[in-house]
Amino acid sequence: MTMYVISHKMFDYDLPNGYQPLLVGADFNSNPRGYLADNTGDNISRQNKEFNELTGLYWMWKNTTDPFVGLSHYRRYFSPHSFGKRIGGRNAMYLWLLAFGRTHPVSEEELQAMLKEYDWVVAYPEDDSKGKETLREQYIRGHYEVDLDHTREAIVKLYPEFTNSFDGVMNGPAVMAPYNMFYTRRELMNDYCKWLFDILFEVQRHTDMTRYDTYQRRLYGFLSERLLNVYLHQQRNVKIKYLTVFNTGDLKRKAVIRHLTNRMGITEKN
To answer: What pLDDT was estimated at residue 193?
Structure first.
């Protein structure tokens, strides 16, 4: 197995066995430690400013053969503890950190055990609108609506059988498995990547980024977060394991308290 850890720079974190750093945007970023790089073989590395971690995903799809494969980020990892909504979701994770002071990425043994029962491991769904928006409204709040229109048009053209799933997910509650993170079997990743990049390259053909700032130019990474959820929604018979994601920058006690107070609507006093 390999869990590829996407990064645009060198980083210091004690990775478990089976975790492999992958430098993205490698034509633009230095690589003194000799990480695997997304600018070798069949690649779209030079489009990293628009595709973000997806240049790494494309490289994984086209240039690796691992039978079990996943994607994490240099600051974000799946926690081995599943803090589902019924026990408080991410709030429960922060309480865990407050009590025990540490967590760690899920191990390769734990991931392999999960795939004996499940088809996909993805991030636990989150809703930053607290039930007040649809996923489409949530996207439009931060990005350009025309990008969603182009995405739907691409799906209707290339994969019309996914149209109802796209409409259902985007017009449903603003809940999604975020970060483009996953772990699955090779053949399932291949099928997903073929579907995803067919759609994104079609959207790209119709997109004018002339007025987009640096943030909005990260368009395809933003779209793919939603599209992973559309893809999984369409797969009626797959079994999905949801894991809470932790950020390595949130592990210090002060950061944990800040996140808890923010999530509870408590304003810290100076």
So the answer is: 98
Residue 57 host element (H or E): helix 54-63
By the 10 Å C-beta count (0-12 exposed, 13-18 middle, 19+ buried), 107 is classed as middle
Contacts of 142 (CB under 8 A, 6+ apart): none
Tokens encoding 62: 């086209």
Which residue, chain included where needed, has tokens 């990743």?
A: 189
d(CA 197, CA 192): 9
- HEC profile of 58-100: HHHHHHCCCCEEEEEECCEEECCCCCCHHHCHHHHHHHHHHHH
Alpha-carbon gap, residue 8 to 72, rounded angstroms:
13
Burial of 116 (0-12, 13-18, 19+ CB in 10 A): exposed
Q: What is the DSSP-derived secondary structure letter of residue 10?
A: -
pLDDT of 202-253, one tens digit each? 999 999 999 999 999 999 999 999 999 999 999 989 999 999 888 887 666 5
Helix (H, G, I), strand (E, B) or coil at 20: strand
> For residue 216, which phi and psi values (nearest 5 degrees)?
-70, -20
Mean pLDDT for the stretch of residues 164-174: 96
Report how far residue 187's alpha carbon sits from residue 173's, in angstroms, rounded to the nearest whole number: 30
Q: Is 127 helix (H, G, I), strand (E, B) or coil?
A: coil
Q: Which tokens in the block code for residue 260?
A: 């808890």
Contact 260, 108 (CB under 8 A): no
Residues 194-207 pLDDT 10s: 999 999 999 999 99
Q: What is the mean pLDDT of residues 73-92?
A: 70
Q: How many angstroms separate the Cα of 25 from the Cα of each of 20, 71, 149, 198, 225? A: 16, 16, 28, 21, 19
